[in-house]
Specification:
single chain; alpha+beta; D-amino Acid Aminotransferase, Chain A, domain 1; about 30% helix
């Protein structure tokens, strides 16, 4: 008989997301009991507390609080009274809880993050057991500015950050810093965005400029709104570009040099590497039709067998080792997704981002296992449990 049954799991997630089904399937595959599902909505409404669960060998797993506007509203409301010095848009808790759904609109991202951070800190105090990824690590990975600073401090290769010493506060300030730091192409990334939300690839050549972005700028009756779009847009009007960049910078944004990428099938690509238990496991290559390579934007996926033949095995292993070193900056996290940029010379490489929930890679396996099964198998091995 398997000794797996003595391990128990609590999964904190939005029930409607496919992540839940995939994790439960992986538990069943390894003969483990299905996880107790705790919806974020219930937790945020105060209808339950994580302190209710206490047992030997109990593991808690936080998953992405995605695709649920009720949860988003609650997190924005939770951030209403959190002190913050930023210039971000603010809304009171009561008004936040009544925000109308507006599909794709980028709503109060900094305040959402402040609420998310505070709630994670509260939940960390309630937990009586182990966690896959510790809330404090999730908090840092959800802040691109802080995360990149931490990686740089640990000598992990990252794109040069233009706001490593001080925040860039406006479009004019950005243009000035690009001139001072001799950088003609930058990425401006919403610090708390995911899935390419609030990302602008911005370049200046003399007096001409261009922004390639997932952000759609909409003006209606004097009201300006910003939306996430799967259709990549290009802006060349300085006023429109300034509006978008000022919005992102006010909400907190990472600004970094736009690095050239290696090419595959004539197009630029990068890699999402999932590090589990300190080891690089599943990898998907993302072949881009634009500077943003996220797969949901219509880019193409390839497995590692499609890597350019000119990329030596030694250099590839070095790149995977860098991903493992990056993950090791978060010793209280069992897994994370890492975006790896490979330079055109197929030797230099940089860590673009870490994602605490970056393990949703459907159809990509390691030794026949998906990410969730690998995570559980490696956890069981670590715990000395037979399966």
């Amino acid at each position: 008989m398997s000794h797996c049954s003595r391990l128990k799991f609590v999964l904190i997630a939005n029930p409607e997301t496919r992540r839940v089904a995939l994790f439960q399937q992986a538990l069943t595959r390894l003969g483990l009991p299905t996880a107790t599902l705790v919806p974020y909505e219930e937790l945020l409404a105060g209808r339950c507390s994580l302190s209710e669960w206490e047992a030997p060998n109990l593991w808690f797993r936080f998953d992405a609080p995605e695709r649920n506007f009720t949860v988003d509203r609650a997190l924005i409301a939770a951030g209403a009274n959190v002190d913050d010095t930023g210039q971000h848009q603010r809304i009171g808790a009561i008004n936040a809880s009544h925000l109308p759904a507006d599909k794709g609109r980028i709503l109060y991202p900094r305040q959402w993050y402040l609420g998310w951070r505070q709630q994670l800190q509260n939940w960390a105090e309630q937990i009586q057991g182990s966690v896959f990824n510790h809330p404090e690590d999730i908090i840092t990975m959800f802040d691109k500015v802080q995360c990149q600073r931490l990686l740089a401090k640990h000598k992990i290769p990252t794109p040069r950050s233009l706001n490593s010493d001080a925040a860039i506060l406006s479009y004019e300030h950005l243009v000035e810093q690009m001139n001072v730091q001799d950088c003609q192409r930058v990425f401006v990334k919403l610090a708390h965005g995911s899935s390419a939300s609030g990302v602008v690839a911005y370049e200046r050549r003399g007096t001409s400029e261009r922004a390639t972005t997932t952000v759609e700028r909409v003006t209606e009756a004097g009201d300006m709104r910003f939306y996430n779009s799967r259709k990549i847009r290009q802006y060349s009007n300085p006023n429109e570009i300034a509006d978008i960049i000022n919005f992102l910078l006010n909400e907190s944004a990472q600004v970094e040099a736009w690095m050239p990428k290696a090419r595959l099938e004539g197009r630029e690509f990068d890699a999402r590497v999932v590090v589990i238990g300190g080891k690089a496991r599943q990898v998907v290559l993302r072949v881009g039709n634009s500077p943003m390579t996220n797969l949901h934007l219509g880019n193409d996926r390839r497995d590692v067998s499609a890597l350019p033949k000119a990329l030596s095995v030694d250099h590839w292993h070095e790149m995977l080792h860098t991903c493992e070193r990056a993950a090791a900056c978060f010793p209280r996290s069992f897994y994370c997704g890492i975006d790896l940029l490979i330079a055109p010379n197929l030797r230099d490489h940089y860590i673009l981002e870490l994602n605490a929930f970056g393990d949703l890679l459907q159809g990509i396996t390691w030794q026949g296992w998906d990410t969730y099964t690998t995570e559980l198998a490696m956890l069981l091995e670590q715990e000395g449990v037979e399966f």
